[in-house]
Amino acid sequence: MNAEDIAGWLRCEDRRKLEELWERADRVRRDTVGDDVHLRGLIEISNFCVRRCAYCGIRAPNTHVTRYRITDVEILDCADKAVELGYGTVVLQAGEDDGLTRDWVVELVRAIKERTGLAITLSLGERPTGDFVAWRKAGADRYLLRFETSDHDLYDRIHPPRPGQEGDRFSRLRLLRDLGYEVGSGVLIGIPGQNFDSLAVDIALFAELDLDMIGVGPFIPHPETPLGREPSPPVADQVPATDAMAYKVLALARLVCPESNIPSTTAIATLDPDGGRATGLSRGANVVMPNLTPDRYRVLYEIYPDKSVLSETSDVCRTDLNAQLLELGRRPGRGPGNRTGK
Ligand code: SAH
Fold first, then answer.
1. What are phi and psi of 314, to 5 degrees?
2. pLDDT tens-digit map of 126-173
3. What pTM value is reported for the model?
4. For ligand 1, is residue 159 a contact (CB within 6 Å)?
5. CB of 303 closer than 6 angstroms to any ligand 1 atom
6. What string of H, E and C letters represents the secondary structure of 106-125?
7. Beta bridge partners of 122
8. How far apart are CA 30 and CA 12, in angstroms?
């Protein structure tokens, strides 16, 4: 499928044709990665951030955020919880926080590995090469870094680089791959200024980058950010930031990258609280990332408002999830859930 075909699907509003897309995505998912749904326990370890991303609620200039950094002891407790709940992976995510020093993360990764043997995914933003090298050596298995959009001008507008540096997530993704990480990336859907052709190029790029993991979700406006505050000038062919559009992107991601691990994301469930998670799983996704962040921190990791998991405790998440998977004829994956077929 080339970018033109993909753009055709993104524009498609014909329900019958879309049914065909959902079925194709679900079939490819079943034939390649099977019925296992891998569970990754998400721990949001810090909401400090030095960046000024125009979409993100924890951007540095937002003075209304109470900032936190979880202690290593608390993180290890969360990792124990992940084991108890039967998850195979923990994902450590944060703002781009220089306070999470290279050595501290090294020790943390070692400690989690030693104690639990879980697979470890890091999602800590754009960090110096030496950090990526040291964390991989310490035992980190995977790294998530969405490129958000491949449109350079749009990217620079919504994701201003650090002073004196060039913003190039593609070179970071290549580096991560060379270091032996499983690499995850993805995009925001419906960023003001994003048009259909540009989103179609993004999806074609998933295949070109040979991503091991693909995370996509609708852009959700946060009132304390430039993109959430200021009305954007209308763009021809603007992609809507809807759950309907997110399902198309999910299904197309599965078709272009049949073997990737693809989560049904929280942002989708936020826009479609009743059925979002299950619908994602039946339209291409094979991963869920239940939130393990302790409640008192979780409310402060507000990258966008009304995150669907805010009121759930980890245990409720798990019970709901098991019932949901059963209903869908799926089952929780065992083990680390690495990318298949490599
Ligand atoms: N600091 C890390 C982790 C960021 S949070 C990094 O930059 O990689 C993970 C993802 O949340 C981001 O990559 C972005 O795609 C998504 N996100 C941020 N703000 C959002 C918003 N307002 N609506 C929807 N998704 C958002």
1. -60, -40
2. 999 999 999 999 999 999 999 999 999 999 999 999 888 877 899 999
3. 0.97
4. no
5. yes
6. HHHHHHHHHHHCCEEEEECC
7. 92, 143
8. 24
